[in-house]
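Q: Structure tokens for this one, please.
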Amino acid sequence: MPLDPNLRILVDGDPSRVYHQGDQVKGRVILVVEKQEQIKALKLNFLGACITKTTRPFYVTENDRDGTSAPRQEYRDRTYLFNIEEVLLPGYTLGAKKYCWDFDFTFPKLTETRHSRWARGSKFARDFHPLPPSFHIYTDNPGGEAMVSYYLQAKLIRRGMKDVKRVMQTLAFCPNSRNTPHEPRINSRILYAQTWKPTRDTRTAIDKIINKVSRKSTMRSSSPQIVPTLYYPEKIAPGQHIPLLVSITNARRGCDEQLQCFLDSLVVTISTYTTSMCGKLLTQPQDSITKHITCISKHDLNQPLSFDVRTKLTTNFRLVDDAECVPTFKTYTITRHYTLTIVVGLKCQGQKFTIKSTTPLEILPRLPRAYVNTQAPDHHDEIPVDPLPLYEPTEAGAELAPDYDTVYSLTPAPSRPYSFAETESYVSGTSTPLTRLTTPSSEVDRPSIDNRASWHRSSMIGQTGWPRPSSLLMQRRGIE
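A: Here is the predicted structure, written as tokens:
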């Protein structure tokens, strides 16, 4: 029995390649016909689309409002960013044979769809705009999904009542990084609304008496007012260091030398906001997905701060280069944006206070990996890593067991019973001298030592910081 026509799309190059604006997509469409077929048309489309899905329950009665098994209405929407079509074969009768057609497309720089201002809300784009990156996420609602997809679709239309045969080939796309700066630009924000003042009266009894007699406030001249300033980037690319700094200023000069301020804690959170809409003209249901990721959480730092001097809060803080770091975008039915929240705990005059700032964070397209790999890190990790101790070979004689006659002699020499005093004295650095056991020369000439076991033992002891007990002492414990 002859099979149906076999239709395939083959793209030249790496199938996992990430395309950018202006890149060419080349390949071929292959059609294998097992018998004579009457073809109405064979078309190839190069498309970019925003696809959104969601569901909403039918609130028939109040009892069904909270029910999980209540029937739900499905909403679907597909909005094309662009649609380039090429007719490979018009109406024709094909014989049993293998056919091949080449194709060559180019990713456009802008979308090709324009919507009325009444069809979309202010959160979404309505006019031409740069292509958004490939994107896929599931929403919190049952059946909810949002996707930005680029793909090739070949469609074979046969005459008669036969089904239309379709095949697809997905392409990954991300905006290029030509406009991404190699180093982030740091902005400052003075937090006047979070100026710190002492919560209790620190004046002495003499100052209070002078204040009442002279009717002048000495508290105003002596009480500090700490004005914090945060420094942060508004745009960042995955792989780049995110510099965060803080500085403090005393608005009332004259007592800076007496003040001692410390950095007590630091918490940094990056929030992700995704909104998708099914573009129904009347209902327009929207799904919103919010994620808060705590990137840094440090407490009890007790780091001294100087006035009017920028203090680094991070030294090697970078975004992980994965699917969560999708560049910020805004298209017809899907939006994606981020915020950066910094919470800094300070301590001054024994009193603790907290400053907090939340700012928009625009994630830019990724820089080429070749550039990121060539950048030598200028900073060390925030958590210092102690290296393992170097391997030092030990003397062969110290690792050998005593000879057989000494261990199993019928009249062993008297020895002191083992006690914790030896261990304690050894740990303190004054070990008790022990009698060295003898070993026949025949065993010393050709020792058998497992280098791997010796290295493993020394490395593990060096990591945990345990004292290195004498191998001879360990032998005495086993003997006695």
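A few notes: Residues 378-388, 411-480 have pLDDT under 50 and may be disordered. Residues 397-440+449-479 form one domain.
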